[in-house]
TrEMBL record:
PANTHER family referenced in this protein's UniProt entry, alphabetically: 2-OXOGLUTARATE (2OG) AND FE(II)-DEPENDENT OXYGENASE SUPERFAMILY PROTEIN-RELATED (PTHR47990)
Isopenicillin N synthase-like Fe(2+) 2OG dioxygenase domain residues: 208-292
Residues annotated as domain Non-haem dioxygenase N-terminal: 30-110
InterPro entries: DIOX_N, IPNS-like_FE2OG_OXY, IPNS-like_sf, Iron_ascorbate_oxido_reductase
SUPFAM superfamilies: Clavaminate synthase-like
Protein name: Putative clavaminate synthase-like protein
Family label: Belongs to the iron/ascorbate-dependent oxidoreductase family.
């Protein structure tokens, strides 16, 4: 086993919670420890349905990741994200890999579509075993891999079974759309947001990441003490997501929205500069982004009586149906990218929007599925 002395791990210290009175969104919580009980599972399916047809976000407890493992992952994420730039550069995704759609390693410094202050390190679940990680991660890769697989094969699997219950589909049929090993793009991510300079804050309207919908099936994130995530609620108002230690936050992406004909919503959300008392904090996060099988057609699931009964069995985009791989490629070029930061209007003389650089599709002016308050 490699020594940890030469590559020490830094301790991540959570930032103190914000004392500001923020307008928090009320999210449904699923306690997954109730999953194995038949009655509990049925209640979870009802809550799942409510959360994903209304706010599009929920929290998860009882997920099976202990506080110790959670803390160790946060230490690893913190150490990874605070490496000096010259060390990060050694593990950056190369332009060739990027062209092939391989989404692994650090992002290119100051890469297209992001602030310089946003950085992340992606680990593909089904990537090449040969890929080299920064040395401090090596002694912990076995544990980290266990966490990645737990999120995919336990947490995501349970979410898919709840989805099958909501759609009245055989669970095996739904699980077959997300077979372990058949997605080349699902990944686990360490991420950080360093404070934006005054100038960058003004230029970007205080948006670290403008309003957007995620791309895949589920986005699962470890909750973060630095408040910055805002969700567009069902009345068309951006609300903050509150920090609750050791819960996970889950939202659905556009693949699942398209697979359910819009019954489940890929809710718009964004990352803004934190409240005044957390403005100088480094925001470190851990994410898992789930994806369907590469060759799955992203259209309403055919064998759901619920989608048929409720009229959600028509494609949301009648002009084109992509496979998961094709869809993600189109997303890279701006397909179905919304523009909803209407509460922070853009002044061409003051503001810029690096997020939309190089898009070849036009911007979505409305959500794919109608939201009261936005039309
Ligand atoms: Fe997102």
């Amino acid at each position: 086993m490699a020594s940890t002395i030469s590559c020490p791990i830094s301790k991540w210290i959570p930032a103190p919670s914000s004392k500001e009175r923020l307008d928090y969104i009320q999210l449904v919580n699923l306690d997954l420890s109730r999953f194995d009980d038949l009655e509990g599972r049925q209640e979870l399916a009802r809550d799942f349905y409510k959360a994903f047809t209304e706010e599009g976000f929920l929290t998860l407890s009882g997920h099976g990741i202990s506080e110790e493992v959670w803390a160790q992952q946060m230490d690893l994420a913190y150490t990874t994200m605070t490496l000096p730039p010259e060390e990060k550069a050694l593990y950056e995704v190369t332009p060739e890999e990027d062209k092939q759609g391989i989404y692994a390693g650090f992002k290119e410094a100051g890469g297209k579509g992001f602030h310089r202050e946003i950085d992340f390190y992606n680990m593909l679940l089904n990537g090449s075993k040969e890929r080299i990680h920064p040395p401090h991660l090596n002694p912990y890769m076995e544990e980290t891999r266990k966490v990645m697989l737990h999120v995919r094969d336990d947490i995501q699997r349970k979410l898919l079974i709840l989805l099958a219950m909501c759609l009245e589909m055989p669970e095996e049929e739904l699980l077959a759309t997300h077979k372990p090993g058949l997605s080349s793009s699902e990944y686990y991510r360490y991420m950080s947001y360093s404070p934006l300079s005054e100038e960058a804050t003004i230029k970007s309207r205080g948006l670290f990441m403008p309003g957007h919908a995620d791309w895949g099936t589920f986005s699962i994130l470890f909750s973060q003490p630095v408040c910055a995530l805002q969700v567009l609620d069902k009345t068309g108002v951006f609300k903050w997501v509150e920090y609750i230690p050791n819960v996970m936050i889950v939202n659905i992406g556009q693949c699942l929205e398209l697979l359910t004909g819009g019954l489940f919503r890929a809710t718009i959300h964004r990352v803004v500069t934190p409240p005044q008392d957390q403005k100088k904090e480094l925001r470190v996060g851990i994410f898992y982004f789930s994806r369907p099988n590469d060759d799955l057609l992203i259209e309403p699931l055919r064998n759901s009586p619920v989608l048929r009964r409720l009229g959600f069995d028509k494609p949301l985009d009648p002009n084109i149906t992509y496979t998961a791989t094709g869809f993600l490629e189109a997303k890279k070029n701006g397909y179905l990218k919304p523009d909803f930061d209407f509460d922070r209007p853009r002044d061409a003389k003051l503001h810029s929007d690096p997020f939309r650089e190089g898009d070849s599709f036009s911007v979505l002016a409305k959500p794919l599925v109608a939201v009261p308050g936005i039309s």
